[in-house]
Amino acid sequence: MTSPPRRYLDNAATGWPKPPEVVAAVVRAMTEVGATAGRGAYRSALEATALRDRARRAVAGLLGADPARVVLSTGATVALNVAFHGLLQPGDHVVATAADHNATLRPLEWLRARGIIDLSIVPCDGSGRVDPRAVRLAWRPATRLLSSSLVSNVTGVRQDLAALSRVVREHDGLLVVDAAQGAGLVPVDEIAAVADVVAAAGHKWLQGPGGTGWLWVREGLEPEALVQGGTGTASTCLDMPGALVERLEAGSPDVPALAGLAAGIEWLARHGTAAVAGHVRALAAAAAERLAALPGVRVVAVPDGAPIVSFTVADYHPADVAALLEQIAGVEARAGFHCAALVHRHLGTADGGTVRVSFGPFNGPADVAAVVGAVAAVVGAAGDGHDDGISLTRPAWQT
Length: 399
Ligand SMILES: Cc1ncc(COP(=O)(O)O)c(C=O)c1O
Hints:
Blueprint: E1 7-8, H1 20-33, H2 43-63, E2 70-73, H3 76-87, E3 93-97, H4 102-113, E4 118-122, H5 132-138, E5 143-149, H6 161-170, E6 174-178, H7 188-194, E7 197-201, E8 213-217, H8 244-248, H9 255-271, H10 273-292, E9 297-299, E10 308-313, H11 318-329, E11 331-332, E12 334-336, H12 343-347, E13 354-358, H13 365-379
Parallel strand pairs: 1-11, 3-4, 3-5, 5-6, 6-7
Antiparallel strand pairs: 2-8, 7-8, 9-10, 10-13, 12-13
Helix pairs in contact: 1-9, 2-9, 3-4, 5-6, 10-13, 11-13
Bound molecules: pyridoxal-5'-phosphate.
Residues 13, 75-77, 101, 103, 149, 153, 178, 180-181, 201, 213, 339 line the site of pyridoxal-5'-phosphate.
């Protein structure tokens, strides 16, 4: 028996396929530029520096921010670690949310377990949304910051960060936002307007290569460096340089990856973030509706931030469902807890987690039909593997 063709539906983990312009930018940086950034005045070193700075400017453009406040990193996890370890002081109290990813919860728990900070984790509702009143109740005189994700990576549901930020402002605290699942789908300039720090991945909805991410820190806030080392500047001085970007970017950057990140953000701008987000959200909405109509299938929440559909199938372990989806329809989906330690207690999925499908710009109605048809086959329902009724015009970037 031949295997069905591959259908990648794990874009919340990392986007794939990447736009051809991104691949071309990576290849060009590797094959034609080669040198590293910020480390020389010869022609290709200057070009590598320009590629790195183009990525920084592209991120700053998304945020409506000064590029000098944008630190490039290897992912959202590293960016969040830089923020927490660099900003928190012994004795600080932090409020985090049960909807958060381990990229925030684990560094905060690490600091708590070593007696450096106190940590309160506020609950979320059955879709992963946090009530700002819970944050207000958890706030203490020693609370330094609220850490919240922009969009849950398990349910695709968006937090009301404007409301959360009002609570933070009432107390003169800081708001650190993990925008890994929102940047590229949600206007992050609106988030930067209410936050003090925003971290994100570049390899998910921003269409960049793996190993890319960034941290934006508002003017006036100066995290300590998590990593010390060479910056290509002030080399005779043993102290880290004072400027934010130099201080927080020690070591040689991954220039090909950053060239790809710039190309990804430029690709999004060319096609329009709203158009791309509209396309992927329409696919997720269709999948959520059709899956929920199948017997024994529970769609955990209706996504309103990222095109993520998390579901369970009665009497099946999520890992078995994911394996069957691949066997039946070639669907590559993730099963389990999705690196989110606590949210499943609130979603009613603590026993095994969920199956998660997430749609990218290069998916289409046939992918929705494939996943719905495969789940229908698993539950023994009459097949719903057709893609009519999902009235989407083929987006320009797919032609
Ligand atoms: C909400 C959220 N935060 C943080 C991360 C970590 O991102 P990265 O893999 O770029 O470190 C992820 C990745 O899955 C995520 O979904």
